[in-house]
Amino acid sequence: MITLLTTDRNLNVVGDPITRYTDIDITLRWNEPDSGTVTVPADGVSVAQLAPGNRLVVIRDGAVFTAGPIESPGALSWSAAGSDVGAGTITLAFASDLASIVGEVVYPDPANPITAQTAARRSFTATNAETVLRTLVRENVGTLALTARRIPGLLVANATGVGSDVSASFRLDYLGDALRSVALAGGGLGFRVDTSADGSSIIFRVYEPRDLSAQVRFSRGLGNLTAYTYTPAAPTCTVAIVGDVGEGVDRNFSEFVAEAASTWGRMVTVLDQRNAENPDEIVQAAMEALAQGAEAAQFTASTIDTPTQRFGTHYGMGDRVSVELDDGVALTDVVRSVHLKATPREGEVVTSTIGTQSVTTDPHWVRLFRDLARRLGRLEAI
Predict the structure, then answer these.
(1) pLDDT tens across 10-29, in order?
(2) Which CATH superfamily is domain 102-208 in?
């Protein structure tokens, strides 16, 4: 059963619960904001509920499935027949609360306004990845942030001791990019936002995905696998050359070579780390490049929930699960996204996408824009 609530920006409930809907389409994403649309009868939602800045809370089976700001307060549709008959329908487009976090930027000195910065970069040296993630959020949008930058009701969950040590440095990078890079370097951590049980807080959490490959399996024989694509491919980076301080002939370079170079040959990626403050950052940048370039195959699978294997009950976002191919080979990979589709007539259908790091829901131009922003922010030049 699905119930919809609307709240204002300060998390106060506005109006009555919305229990009637004609279509719900939501996609949850690992380490990315969720997004979705909800279509409801026009006479089932008030003007106050559509006010700018309001949030939509989706409650499924008594628990918050996702919640966040309404980005489009309603496309109104009416027709003399069909689903839009009568009062017509309104479609709300929304994102999860994580969208408000990842859209900010990392201030070099988060304690001061951008016009009064006292540091060149916000740096962390050999610091636990979970600590870095929690600190970045608290300083830039949480309780330690400047008042104008704080997200109302946002709290950071207590540390659980997950992740390895990382060294990182940021200067006006998008907070989402900073969080994803630290999570990857820190051992493939996940992060998400939850709504507290009483609805009064938004809670940012860092967690370590579970390896459920032995317990959670998808296959044609089990009836829970709907499609898959497996494409073997050569690595794209077996050698990382990193430039740090200096100019011209005085520039310092380091070279890192992966074992795959002996088989596939040299596939070189050149990185600029002129702003690195210690050797750990040089190593981290090289290891990230080699890890991303070492992906030797692309794999994606689509699954469907069954009574004995349900998202949220038996597995979660970022967990590692198994998919059996037709030749009997079982591949293990990460749950990257989950899609909920619900209509009053057909009920709820939950599907998931499992795949390698290259599987993304972002349009190509968004990825290019993020890469450009990162390069400009770091003044990349070799």
Answers:
(1) 999 999 999 889 999 999 99
(2) Baseplate protein-like domains (3.55.50.10)
